[in-house]
């Protein structure tokens, strides 16, 4: 891969990668760091990546970097950084997008990642399986469970509103 081809990959995929990571962690600075790490890893492996598989490699690498960062933060949680608002639930919602994001954030990490890849980024099941290193049937199960949870959660919110 040449520098020009690498730069084309950066131009083509950086926005989609950033949106995917940002939707999962809700922290712009961490999302930028993860994307930078992803492209650094891509640069170091640029000659090993098959032609035409760049997008899949980038999303896979970003996903795994995201998981690593999330796990590291869970181990190193700092109680002084916890916001008091996270202990209470405000039942007054005026924005459906806000309700949907709250519901998605309640999903387990694997379900959240596959639902984001499928419904927000438009990936096929086999592509999601390749990115997440899950079997295609496990991807379908996670998506089914996530959608079932979202339907139940949003249905219960609808009754409250």
TrEMBL record:
<protein>
    <submittedName>
        <fullName>RNA polymerase sigma factor</fullName>
    </submittedName>
</protein>
<feature type="domain" description="RNA polymerase sigma-70 region 2">
    <location>
        <begin position="10"/>
        <end position="75"/>
    </location>
</feature>
<dbReference type="GO" id="GO:0016987">
    <property type="term" value="F:sigma factor activity"/>
</dbReference>
<comment type="similarity">
    <text>Belongs to the sigma-70 factor family. ECF subfamily.</text>
</comment>
<dbReference type="InterPro" id="IPR013325">
    <property type="entry name" value="RNA_pol_sigma_r2"/>
</dbReference>
<dbReference type="InterPro" id="IPR007627">
    <property type="entry name" value="RNA_pol_sigma70_r2"/>
</dbReference>
<keyword id="KW-0805">Transcription regulation</keyword>
<dbReference type="Pfam" id="PF08281">
    <property type="entry name" value="Sigma70_r4_2"/>
</dbReference>
<dbReference type="InterPro" id="IPR036388">
    <property type="entry name" value="WH-like_DNA-bd_sf"/>
</dbReference>
<keyword id="KW-0731">Sigma factor</keyword>
<dbReference type="InterPro" id="IPR013249">
    <property type="entry name" value="RNA_pol_sigma70_r4_t2"/>
</dbReference>
<dbReference type="GO" id="GO:0006352">
    <property type="term" value="P:DNA-templated transcription initiation"/>
</dbReference>
<dbReference type="InterPro" id="IPR039425">
    <property type="entry name" value="RNA_pol_sigma-70-like"/>
</dbReference>
<dbReference type="InterPro" id="IPR014284">
    <property type="entry name" value="RNA_pol_sigma-70_dom"/>
</dbReference>
<keyword id="KW-0804">Transcription</keyword>
<dbReference type="Pfam" id="PF04542">
    <property type="entry name" value="Sigma70_r2"/>
</dbReference>
<feature type="domain" description="RNA polymerase sigma factor 70 region 4 type 2">
    <location>
        <begin position="98"/>
        <end position="150"/>
    </location>
</feature>
<keyword id="KW-0238">DNA-binding</keyword>
<dbReference type="InterPro" id="IPR013324">
    <property type="entry name" value="RNA_pol_sigma_r3/r4-like"/>
</dbReference>
<dbReference type="GO" id="GO:0003677">
    <property type="term" value="F:DNA binding"/>
</dbReference>
